[in-house]
Each structure stands twice: as C-alpha cells, then as structure tokens.
Specification:
By secondary structure, the protein is mainly α. Helix content is about 50%, strand content about 10%. It has 8 helices and 5 strands.
C-alpha cells in the first residue's frame, strides 16, 4: 500500500532504483545501523552502493513493520512484499510484468498535476541528473546507480570512497528536502 509506495519513491530518488531493483532488495543488502544499501543491480549484475537518507531508512523500517507473511519461503528475506505476501515486481509465466509501484505512482503524479514524465522509471533519470548537478562527480553517481562504461579507467578503478557516495546522497537530499523550503 501507501507505506510501500512511499519507501519505494524515496529509494527511486535516493538510490536511482527501478521497481525491479526494489523488488530484488533483501534484508542483508541493507546496513540498517550505518545507513547503506549494497547489492548487485538485477539487470546488469554490477555492484552498487548507496548511502540512504534517514527518511529512506525510516520508511524502509515502516515497510518492515507492516510487511505481510511471505507466501513463498524464497521471499522470506525480501524487504518489499505485496499485501498478499508475493514479490512486488515479477514476470508471469506468460512473460507479462507485474509491477505494484508504476501504476499507483503514475496516478499520484497525475493527481497532483505533475508535468513531464509520469512514470516510476523517471525517478532513476532524476537521480542521475540531480546528483551530477549537485556533485559533478559522475563516477560516484555511476557507482550509486550500478553503471559501468567498460572504459580503461573503469577497469583500473578499485572503488569509490564512501565520502564521495555520501556527497551524492547529500546533494540529492538537499535538492529534495532543503531547496524546496526556499
């Protein structure tokens, strides 16, 4: 319901997550004490690391508090489940996609007369655009999003510091929460 959608929306902006990224999120991916999420992006298998805001962490904890019993034992450690205890995003046997965030998110945007793209997927491009503007650190933004360009530099780079990743999260946080107060 609303608890899942709110937390998913924060993850979409905070970490640049698609619905499928959120559906794949497991308890062990979240460092609940330090405020980090680290796991491989389902689409590419590329490791990503994201500093999560206190608001996102609180929303994730609320999801856990309201989480139904999983219908299948394989889903026991998923952070997000539907009200019926099934994954929030999956492909059906006929190849159709079940996505419990996109339609409600689009409805909210329509209800508030939001201009531009009206899809959950647009949060990912917003994450990249705002984070790059806020930090000018395209490499740290790539790591937070799970991107790789297969360049020579990408091959030699052994990591990106937590300070740089925190700067990405802080820049997005300022844009979303602080700049709007002016």
């Amino acid at each position: 319901g609303r608890t899942n959608l709110y937390a998913a929306t924060l993850l979409g902006i905070n970490c640049g997550y698609y619905s499928s990224d959120i559906a794949d999120l497991r308890e062990h991916h979240v460092d609940w004490d330090q405020g980090w999420i680290e796991h491989k992006r389902p689409k590419t298998g590329i490791k990503r690391r994201c500093r999560i805001w206190p608001e996102t962490l609180a929303a994730l904890k609320a999801v856990g508090d309201a989480r139904p019993t999983p219908k299948d034992e394989d889903d026991a450690d998923r952070v997000f489940l539907s009200e019926r205890g099934t994954p929030v995003w999956r492909r059906t046997a006929k190849g159709r996609k079940t996505d419990l965030f996109s339609q409600p998110f689009s409805k909210v945007l329509k209800d508030v007369n939001a201009n531009g793209k009206r899809s959950f997927r647009s949060l990912r491009s917003t994450h990249q655009t705002v984070a790059e503007d806020a930090t000018a650190d395209t490499i740290a933004v790539k790591v937070s999003m799970g991107h790789s360009d297969n360049s020579v530099s990408d091959h030699y780079r052994k990591g990106v510091s937590d300070e740089r990743l925190t700067a990405v999260a802080d820049g997005l946080h300022r844009w979303l929460f602080e700049d709007s107060d002016e």
